[in-house]
Amino acid sequence: xxxxxxxxxxxxxxxxxxxxxxxxxxxxxxxxxxxxxxxxxxxxxxxxxxxxxxxxxxxxxxxxxxxxxxxxxxxxxxxxxxxxxxxxxxxxxxxxxxxxxxxxxxxxxxxxxxxxxxxxxxxxxxxxxxxxxxxxxxxxxxxxxxxxxxxxxxxxxxxxxxxxxxxxxxxxxxxxxxxxxxxxxxxxxxxxxxxxxxxxxxxxxxxxxxxxxxxxxxxxxxxxxxxxxxxxxxxxxxxxxxxxxxxxxxxxxxxxxxxxxxxxxxxxxxxxxxxxxxxxxxxxxxxxxxxxxxxxxxxxxxxxxxxxxxxxxxxxxxxxxxxxxxxxxxxxxxxxxxxxxxxxxxxxxxxxxxxxxxxxxxxxxxxxxxxxxxx
Length: 375
Hints:
Blueprint: H1 3-35, E1 40-47, H2 50-60, E2 74-80, H3 83-96, E3 97-99, E4 105-106, H4 107-110, E5 121-127, H5 129-132, E6 145-151, H6 152-164, H7 174-206, H8 208-214, H9 222-231, H10 233-246, H11 260-268, H12 274-298, H13 315-327, H14 334-343, H15 354-370
Helix pairs in contact: 1-2, 9-10, 10-12, 12-13, 13-15, 14-15
């Protein structure tokens, strides 16, 4: 039996074990990367199919003596959002696996600066000794897996380059090679700019309390609203009252992205700055609580209601906006209320239409103006 036939026979006999090995490495990487709080776009695995293996053996002209000489039967790809996270994942791989240095390559360092191409990190690894001592991993002894790590933009480059079908620059006209080089430069700049944006956001979030204290003209955004809900006594007091009215504990874990709708709602009402928001709180705070009381008394929440999961401490801005729609008669009538509700997808669920919610707000206005009943 020649070497190729022997290798193909070994592949057929061990295919299922390699498939399990591939899945285990993928699962392990997901756990390890998540434990380090590194966000990622995707972690996927693949087993080299029989046709690809056969073609590879033919191309290498007798290089391989057995299946274990081929290092990419099992493959896992990690795609991070940011280029700097490629290094963080690489550190995890080097720490948690036995790395075959001779068959691993950092293409970011190997690529000449004036050459087009994508830059990713390729490791060939085995499970380390500690893991191979575990019963569930013993059968994977001696098996190697290729781990590719790249950013989303590096991945986009690689996929498009693969689709074009040209891996060697000499096969492409010089003018087109220039286009490749320009694009490679743009993608590298984009990767760095995304990293800069993330760092700027992180810095802004860490300094938001200083911005709130020193600049009342600062524009409101989701980060600022999230901080106010946690620290501003007036806003906290309104939320506590609404929470008591609702008879439930609002979800305590809040993040800036929970306030994106609130920013949109406030902007619609032409509330753009921190100073304008403070004035809104002072003017509408008490009435916002009364409107909440009106709505919750009509449809009290059950303890097991699915709607409870949607109630967070950003609800304070929801009712402050409602109060503005009701109190500012010169600016908002039933039609503009309906427009506001429609724009923010409020009331278009269940049996209640958006227009019915607008009518309810106008009824609250009428009751308030007549001062006949407590709202």
